[in-house]
Amino acid sequence: MSTELIIATVLGGLTIGSALMVVLSHHPVRSVLYLIVTFFLITANYVLMNAQFIAIVNIIVYAGAIMVLFLFVLMLLNLSKEDEPRSSLFMKVAAALAGGVLFLVLFAALKDAAIFAPQLATPHDESMGLVKNLGHLLFTKYVLPFEISSILFIAAMVGAVLLAKRDKQIIE
Asked: CATH no. for residue 56?
């Protein structure tokens, strides 16, 4: 086995392990900390794949801004067991629908990956991680998954606004 394959396998295992800990941890702050570790491990995977631009953007946007936002929100919410929302049929259907759309986006993005089509794997290319190539692929070949993910982001923002508005109405 080559050294690069061993490093990729170890990084992949650590990434999956820390991502599982995000979901399985019962304490919200610990979940956020595991999510930070997951983002840093994903960044290491990007560097290993010669995608330095995506690695830097991942550190700046996700591990930096988004994680700080999550920690502040968790500290301001003052979560307790009594405040947890009740699970309803509508919430379960909405979660299943959002999960299905996310699965569709992942499937569309991975359908041409080396896992599903080994003949498409190319030797190591120096221009592989350039922003120009990324933008060209994103807005030509992967435009549908890109637009579907934007709809998911808009739905998440609307949900956050509705949750914040509901809390203000209860306070008043």
From this structure: 1.20.120.1200
Mean pLDDT score of the chain: 78
Outline where 58-142 has alpha helix (H): 67-77, 89-110, 131-139
**DSSP-derived 3-state class of residue 41:** helix
Last residue of some domain: 78, 101, 124?
78
Task: Give residue-wise pLDDT tens across range 34-64.
Answer: 988 998 999 999 888 888 888 888 888 877 7
Q: Are residues 73 and 125 in the same domain?
A: no
Question: What Cα–Cα distance (Å) separates residue 66 from each residue in 48, 58, 149, 168?
Answer: 23, 10, 17, 23
Whether 101 and 155 map to the same domain: the answer is yes
CB-based contact 48:7 (threshold 8 Å)? yes
Query: What distance in Å separates the CA atoms of residue 56 and residue 47, rounded to the nearest whole number?
Result: 9
pTM score: 0.55
Distance separating alpha carbons of residues 23 and 32, to the nearest angstrom: 10
124: amino acid identity, one letter: H
Q: What dihedral do alpha carbons 86, 73, 151, 140 form, nearest 10°?
A: -140
